[in-house]
Amino acid sequence: MESDSLVPPLGLGSSDETDEIIKQLEAQRSTYEKSGEFLEAEKVHQRILHFKAEQKQRREDELSERQAKEAADLETTFEEEFKAFNDDWDNRMNTYKENCKEMEQQMKGKQENEFETTKKSLEESIPIIPKHSSEYLNLKRIQDTLVRNKEYVEAHAIQQQMIDLEENEKKDWGKDRDTQISLALSTLSKRHEHELEAFKLKAGKGFDELKKLRAAEMESLLKRYQNLKAEQKNAHKLQKNRFYGKHTTGSGLYKTENTASSKVLFTPRAQLNRPSTAALRLTIESHDEKDAQQNN
């Protein structure tokens, strides 16, 4: 059989090589047909059909493999992006909490210093020994007069009254002094408590804002992924419709025999392009600057 010796075995060769083989077989079939060797032409025709079926199956497998790889690439890219997103946000929120904790400790230290400084100032500014009362000063004048008149017994009696009065006044003054200092320090402590509570409230609101922003960006990321996944699914459907020669809305009729490579309609890594961590990073300082600008 001359035709069998001229035709390469089935299942060999790349797509381009197969195209060349089919081209040669078509020429051979045409020759047999023109020469009236119809049985030989039929054998070559069957071999052509076999090659075309094999070629179509190979291209179908290649299309399925390529689409599966694109779907896997998109899934992998999203998983990497999702992990990077969570790692970045975990770092940002932990940094925020650490900064707040550090600022709280600094505030407490400042308040402790202010408390000790105020206490020392009060201790030094409020005398331990009180000024003599008008009653004491009056007794002192009487005593002086009695001494000048050499009335020592009466002067001694007045002196004892002065000593008792001074002791009582010192006791009363000590209580009043302690009360003044205690009241001033208590007022200062309450102010410190209010300052600390206000800071914690502000820090809590800031953390809540970060959580809201994280949730919003997470939703945006998931929507972007779902949109890309739907776009990819639609592109794959169009590619298969084109391969099988089906009608598609707005795309016309595609030929079954597609000898050219299908154009890549979707590139996962290029499409799923998330802003860099640096661009998205939110710091306490940036919030403060924004607040300052709005206040101005």
UniProtKB/TrEMBL annotation:
Residues 53-72 are annotated as: Disordered. Residues 86-113, 211-242 form a coiled coil. The keyword Coiled coil applies. Keywords: Coiled coil. This is Uncharacterized protein. It comes from Blepharisma stoltei.
